[in-house]
Specification:
CATH superfamily: Glycosidases
Number of helices: 6
Distance between the termini: 27 Å
Radius of gyration: 16 Å
Oligomer: single chain
Structural class: alpha/beta
Strand content: 25-35%
Low-confidence stretches: none
C-alpha cells in the first residue's frame, strides 16, 4: 500500500520536502481541464518541478467539463492534455477526471465513449492512462463500467473502500486529509500497485 495525495492550484503547498518526509510517496497533479473553457492549471508547472525535486513520484489528471460526450470530444480533450504535459515524465498514470457529465441514461454511453477515446489517444502517445471518478456518482451513475475494464481506475469514496467498483488500483479515501508541508485539507490516496516500477521499466510516460 503506497500513500499519495492529489492537488491543484486550490491547494497551498509550503514544502514538498516536508510532504515527502511525512511518508507520502506520490502526488497526482491537476494539469488542466475543460470545465471552464480550456485551460492549464496555474500551479501545474510549479508543483511539477517542486514535487520532482523533492523525490516524489508524479502523476497528472485532466478535469473534463459538461460537454464531455462522444469519441470526438474525448480525443480533443486528450490532445489538449497531451500538449500541457508534453516533455515531462510521470511515474504514475495520467488520468481523465469525469465528474460533470449528466447521469441521464442517454448520456452515459456518450460519456463512456469519450472516456475510452481519451484514454486510447493518450495510450497511442505512450502514456499509461486511467480514469478517475467517484464510486457511485461517477462509475455507477455516469459511466458504463463494463466498457472501461481495459484501463486502470482511480476511485473516490470517503469513509470506506469503494463498493460498486471492485477492480481499482488507486483509492481516493479522503478530501480532508492533513499532511505536513500543506496548508489546509488535501485529498488522500492509496495505491495498490507499484506504478513507478511498471511505468519506468516499460518506458511509458516519457521514460525512454
Amino acid at each position: 500500500m503506497i500513500k499519495g495525495i492529489d492537488i491543484s492550484h486550490w491547494n497551498r503547498v509550503k514544502d514538498f520536502f516536508e510532504v515527502k518526509a511525512s511518508g507520502i510517496d506520490f502526488v497526482i497533479l491537476k494539469a488542466g481541464g475543460s470545465d471552464a473553457g480550456f485551460y492549464s492549471d496555474p500551479q501545474f508547472e510549479n508543483y511539477y518541478r517542486q514535487a520532482k525535486l523533492a523525490g516524489l513520484s508524479v502523476g497528472a489528471y485532466y478535469f473534463t467539463g459538461r460537454n464531455f460526450y462522444g469519441s470526438s470530444a474525448g480525443e480533443e480533450d486528450a490532445k489538449r492534455f497531451a500538449r500541457i504535459i508534453k516533455g515531462k515524465t510521470f511515474e504514475y498514470p495520467v488520468y481523465v477526471d469525469i465528474e460533470m457529465t449528466s447521469p441521464a441514461a442517454n448520456k452515459i454511453k456518450e460519456a463512456s465513449s469519450a472516456a475510452i477515446s481519451f484514454c486510447e489517444h493518450m495510450e497511442s502517445l505512450g502514456y499509461f492512462t486511467g480514469i478517475y471518478a467517484s464510486d457511485i456518482s461517477g462509475f455507477r451513475d455516469r459511466l458504463m463500467l463494463e466498457r472501461l475494464t481495459g484501463f486502470t481506475l482511480w476511485v473516490a469514496r470517503y469513509g470506506k473502500k469503494p463498493q460498486y467498483v471492485e477492480n481499482y488500483d488507486i483509492w481516493q479515501k479522503s478530501s480532508t486529509g492533513k499532511v505536513p508541508g500543506i496548508v489546509g485539507n488535501v485529498d488522500l490516496d492509496v495505491s495498490y500497485k507499484d506504478f513507478k516500477k511498471i511505468i519506468t521499466s516499460n518506458h511509458f510516460n516519457g521514460f525512454t
